[in-house]
Design goal:
It is built from eight helices and seven strands; from the N terminus they run E-H-E-H-E-H-E-H-E-H-H-E-H-H-E. The protein has helices at 16-26, 40-52, 67-81, 107-134, 147-150, 156-176, 199-208, 217-229; strands at residues 7-10, 31-36, 57-61, 86-89, 138-143, 180-187, 237-240. Strands 3-2-1-4-5-6-7 form a seven-stranded parallel sheet, sandwiched between helices. It holds the Pfam family adh_short.
Length: 246
């Protein structure tokens, strides 16, 4: 699929994987809607980075767990760029909780993680679908995690929320076919700000991995771009983890 002159909305687009994929898509001629919830300065910086290279981008604030904010965001995107061709559901949150500490996995933690990580992705997909259907084509990538495959991760509710993202991906692939393709990219450890203060732990993990390193945001961004371009795949969960789950 030729990506030139298409439009992509990237949730959590200001930092980490979101920023990397926003820039990678912009380099392919895609206009970018950089969504953010709290990281306003980072989102605006991402927009400036894209514009300085001759690309087109805007930053739009929206909490993806709030339906009205999601709908307003897509309205803004369409007013600015005419339509939305691609959606990268990247916005996610976590809480650091020992897996064995079931008491710390409170109702509030479950509700917060599922509101953003699962329902937020659904709300964005639902808002994007009419525009993609009208265009007779579109593609969505939900950013999952190997935590959703292994059951282990920063917290039990986080791992379960990512397993739900993988399930949501398959259900949406059925629901939105044939016009819209829906896949998930499931990264392992990625060198983002989530590791700040845990550099020694990341170094130890890197040494154990078959590829001897953790992934960079740009690695995941390249894969997301490739998945968006592939017109013959849908409903797939594609892992990029430097061999972590091997």
């Amino acid at each position: 699929m030729d990506m030139k002159n298409k439009t992509a909305l990237v949730t959590g687009g200001g930092t980490g994987i979101g920023r990397a994929v926003s820039i990678a898509l912009a380099n392919r001629g895609v206009s970018i809607v950089v969504n953010y919830s709290r990281s306003k300065a980072e989102a605006e910086e991402t927009v400036e980075m894209i514009k300085s290279e001759g690309g087109r981008a805007i930053a739009v604030k929206a909490d993806v767990s709030q339906v009205s904010e999601v709908e307003d965001m897509f309205e803004t995107a369409v007013q600015e760029f005419g339509t939305v061709d691609f959606l990268v559901n990247n916005a996610s949150i976590t809480r650091q909780i020992e897996l064995g500490d079931l008491d710390a996995a409170t109702e509030e933690v479950w509700d917060e993680l599922f509101a953003v990580n699962v329902k937020g992705m659904f709300y964005c997909a639902r808002a994007a679908a009419p525009f993609m259907k009208k265009n007779k084509q579109g593609a969505i990538v939900n950013v999952g995690s190997i935590a959703g495959l292994t059951g282990s991760g920063s917290s039990l509710p986080y791992a379960v929320s990512k397993a739900a993202v993988h399930g949501l991906t398959k259900s949406l692939a059925h629901a939105l076919a044939p016009e819209i393709r829906v896949c998930s990219v499931a990264p392992g450890a990625v060198s983002t700000r989530w590791w700040e203060g845990h550099e020694e732990k990341m170094k130890r993990l890197s040494q154990k991995l078959p590829l001897g390193r953790v992934a960079e945001p740009e690695d995941i961004a390249m894969l997301i771009c490739a998945v968006l371009e592939q017109e013959a795949i849908t409903g797939q969960i594609i892992t990029a983890d430097c061999g972590q789950t091997l």
